[in-house]
Every structure is written in C-alpha cells, then in structure tokens.
Amino acid sequence: MTHRDLASGFHVVTGHTREGNQQQDWRQLAKLNGTLVIVMGIANLPFICEELLMGGKSPATPAAIVMSATRDNQRRLTCTLGTLLTKAQEANIVPPALIVVGDVVRLSDRLSFIPEVMERAYSERCS
C-alpha cells in the first residue's frame, strides 16, 4: 500500500454503502495523495471509475483488482484506471475483490508473495 518512493500513505474506503446512505465523494478521493484501496466496490466499479476520472485522477494511474485475496482461487488483474472497468469485465471479476489505485500497483509483480504462500499451503493440504 505504501512505498517510500511512490506513496507515503493510503486510504481505505467502501465502494458500496447501505441503500439510503451517502456515497463516497469519489471526486474528492481522486485528489488525495497516496494509494486508494476500495473494498466492496465491484458492483459500483463503473461509477467509481467514472467519478475518479472526473475528479482528476489520470487514466494512466496504475490500478489493480485482487479477487478472492488469500484464497486458493485468488486472481489479480493489473492495468490502469482508464482500462480497469473494461479489463475487469473481460476477466469476469466478481466479489469478493479489493481494488487498489495508485503508483504502488507498479510493484505488485515484484512484491507479491501470495502465489508462493498459497502454492505451499495447497501442497501441504494435498500431501
């Protein structure tokens, strides 16, 4: 979520509020420095992406979705904010999923330990 060269902080918000409750101000969130982490946001992904872009977040901002994090069926999609919605639809991303928007996403391949951990856990269950 943070890296001293890319983001010194992060913000965690829900992407899905109870009906009747006020939605996040995505345009204001787009202006914040650091990494944006969105939980429960897949159903509202079209609106979230549009509002972040309208709020000034660059379409070239790195973005990722981690579906079923820490489970043996975990999947990760990395792209840009401008292509996130289309790529998520093409990849058939469904909840539960975590959305991450920010420069630290560029490091996800180098810092990902989950596949190794999950592979080891799966191997131990099967032996």
TrEMBL record:
<dbReference type="InterPro" id="IPR035996">
    <property type="entry name" value="4pyrrol_Methylase_sf"/>
</dbReference>
<dbReference type="GO" id="GO:0032259">
    <property type="term" value="P:methylation"/>
</dbReference>
<dbReference type="GO" id="GO:0019354">
    <property type="term" value="P:siroheme biosynthetic process"/>
</dbReference>
<keyword id="KW-0808">Transferase</keyword>
<dbReference type="InterPro" id="IPR050161">
    <property type="entry name" value="Siro_Cobalamin_biosynth"/>
</dbReference>
<dbReference type="GO" id="GO:0004851">
    <property type="term" value="F:uroporphyrin-III C-methyltransferase activity"/>
</dbReference>
<dbReference type="Pfam" id="PF00590">
    <property type="entry name" value="TP_methylase"/>
</dbReference>
<keyword id="KW-0489">Methyltransferase</keyword>
<dbReference type="InterPro" id="IPR014776">
    <property type="entry name" value="4pyrrole_Mease_sub2"/>
</dbReference>
<keyword id="KW-0627">Porphyrin biosynthesis</keyword>
<dbReference type="InterPro" id="IPR000878">
    <property type="entry name" value="4pyrrol_Mease"/>
</dbReference>
<protein>
    <submittedName>
        <fullName>Uroporphyrinogen-III C-methyltransferase</fullName>
        <ecNumber>2.1.1.107</ecNumber>
    </submittedName>
</protein>
<feature type="domain" description="Tetrapyrrole methylase">
    <location>
        <begin position="12"/>
        <end position="84"/>
    </location>
</feature>
